[in-house]
Amino acid sequence: MQTIVYPMNLPTAPPPLNSPTAPPRQTLQPPTQPGEWSLQQIQDALKRPLPPNLLCRIKERGNAQYLPWYRTIQILDKYCLGWSWEIRHLQLSSDRLFLIGRLSVPTRDGLVYREATGTEELKREVFNKSTGQREAKELAYGDPSSNAESMAFRRASAKFGLALYLYEK
């Protein structure tokens, strides 16, 4: 299979899901085998607004919506048969983990991929009032490598159009 890298398209975002101008969701018959659809067909399917029940919210970031990694997988399994994910590069600093991941999708036009970065803080320096000293605090929520991979995976998926409109501010 030939590898084709396409330049990034910069589509306009669809109207918000609760907007009166938002188009109704149409039933779309997914592909039945890998490589059946063109890149354009895949992007058109992935760019559609998502039902609100698939999205989660981050309270710490102004109640921002996001698509969790496990739901991203479900959508890719439906519309991007044969997709694959790989970690291309991993690097550690004293307080952060950085990685680059690649999402590859077989299309009628060949194998197409998008790469994205993910990062996660490993520890944070905080001031301890009781001792009067600065201390390195391990961050408690989740595993840093899983969090960074999830970020890169969701970003790479957004580069194919999946939930891209959620990244607009």
Topology, element by element:
Elements: H1 39-46, E1 56-58, E2 64-66, H2 69-79, E3 84-92, E4 96-107, E5 110-121, E6 123-128, E7 133-138, H3 144-158
Antiparallel strand pairs: 1-2, 3-4, 4-5, 6-7
How many H/I helical runs?
3
Helices and strands, in order, run as HEEHEEEEEH
Largest sheet: 3 strands, antiparallel
Radius of gyration: 19 Å
User: Distance between the terminal alpha carbons, to the nearest Å?
Assistant: 38 Å
Overall CATH architecture:
2-Layer Sandwich
Overall mean pLDDT: 84
Strand order, sheet with most strands: 3-4-5
Number of strands: 7
Provide tags for this entry.
169 residues; Enolase-like, domain 1; 7 strands; 20% helix
What do these coordinates show?
By secondary structure, this protein is α+β, with helices and mostly antiparallel strands. 20% of the residues lie in helices and 30% in strands. The radius of gyration is 19 Å and the shape is elongated. Strand 6 and strand 7 form a beta hairpin. Residues 1-22 have low confidence and may be disordered. The chain has helices spanning 39-46, 69-79, 144-158, and strands at 56-58, 64-66, 84-92, 96-107, 110-121, 123-128, 133-138. It has a single domain, classed as Enolase-like, domain 1 (2-Layer Sandwich), CATH 3.30.390.
